[in-house]
Give the backbone structure.
Amino acid sequence: MTTHLLGFLALNKNGGCKGMDYIYMITDDRMIISLNADLDHHVADEIRGVIDKIIDERGVKHIIFDFSKISFMDSAGIGLIMGRYKKIRGIGRIAVVGVNPSIERILQISGLHKIVKEFPDVAHAIKKMQEAKV
Amino acid sequence: MLKNKMHLEFDSKSENESFARVAVAAFCTRLDPTIEEISDIKTAVSEAVTNCVVHGYEGKDGTITIECTTQEDWVTVLVHDDGVGIENINKAMEPLFTSKPELERSGMGFSFMEAFMDELEVNSKMGYGTTVIMKKRIGVINK
């Protein structure tokens, strides 16, 4: 397994950030995207292209959305997650972590919680995803 | 509580969506809302403003107007654009309906406005724009 810790030097090759709205890290076929800005239409538009490019170019199959630093998501976030779910359906999984009560309500009302796994933090998500692979 | 009113006008740009919802939420804090109520208002305003940017002006230049009133324990938020208008409001308000699936719109915008606010009214005329009026009573749980 190739693991790349997120660091300044690693950012160019295996991770990246733009305007600090988000930071991503890639490990093997897994991408962790940590949001630093509330997930609305503006931020969703910014992230969508980046994730899709990485899925296509780096063979990413599993995506973990880390919401631990944000407190707000609207229906644009639903669209973003649904779109990535459709893209990797059959080959990978999507997980969300660090979800606060406000975002949890959005996930519940939209029904997204039925197709996306939820974990308390990134470590739990990685562990469960690795177990599922075996 | 006496009536209080504020008026916002800003460019139809996606980066203004966060400004709009935070400004309305800040204005409503005088009613002493819970965190959940503030979150509800922010979501509804964000959906309404995003609709103006994406559907009303279709990503082009335009001006979005918000009028927010607090009176007694009610918040009223009016969000208006002078954009293209909605051809069929009933259809647009159906859950999961979107006229722009290519933009990954989830079709949940009006559903969220209805779910998170107590009243929702949508007025629109093709070629003249759309006005959304949302009302929410604050502090219902504690009264």
